[in-house]
Backbone:
């Protein structure tokens, strides 16, 4: 016969398992989020502006947007990647990274700075950072918020003006 104490112990065990599972999921999510700066660093080092588009398993050729340019799309650990070449060339003209979720600009900024140098313009309150170089090259890191908190994109872009 089942006693009241046995039912209570069973529910207590179930609650502990649920809490342990939730904590584990949160820790795994935090560990994944901490890898985003390293992933951004890796992508920006592998896909360099004015260098040939590298053969990477996570980057696939896609339908071109501009005439005479080649377009690539891909994803690396949840980061969406778009690459476009110069006209009639295999050299990278632009790189766009989109990181879905909450604002990650402050988290990824050190990684971006390691690869392309310190920003020329910054507005931390607005989550906007910008770079400019000779020959019309530019870059930016900013957050494009969605309708709800945490539903936007952190954007990293390197391009020609």
Residues:
């Amino acid at each position: 016969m089942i006693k009241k104490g046995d039912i209570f112990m069973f529910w207590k065990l179930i609650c502990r398992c649920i809490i342990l599972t939730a904590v584990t999921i949160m820790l795994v999510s935090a560990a994944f989020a901490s890898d985003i700066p390293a992933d951004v660093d890796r992508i920006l080092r592998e896909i360099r502006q004015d260098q040939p588009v590298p053969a990477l398993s996570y980057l696939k050729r896609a339908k071109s947007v501009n005439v005479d340019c080649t377009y690539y799309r891909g994803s690396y650990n949840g980061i969406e990647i778009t690459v476009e070449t110069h006209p009639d060339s295999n050299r990278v003209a632009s790189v766009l990274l989109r990181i879905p979720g909450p604002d990650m600009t402050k988290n990824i900024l050190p990684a971006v700075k390691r690869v392309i140098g310190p920003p020329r313009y910054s507005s931390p309150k607005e989550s906007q950072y910008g770079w400019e170089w000779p020959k019309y090259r530019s870059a930016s890191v900013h957050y494009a918020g969605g309708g709800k908190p945490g539903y936007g994109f952190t954007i990293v872009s390197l391009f020609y003006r």
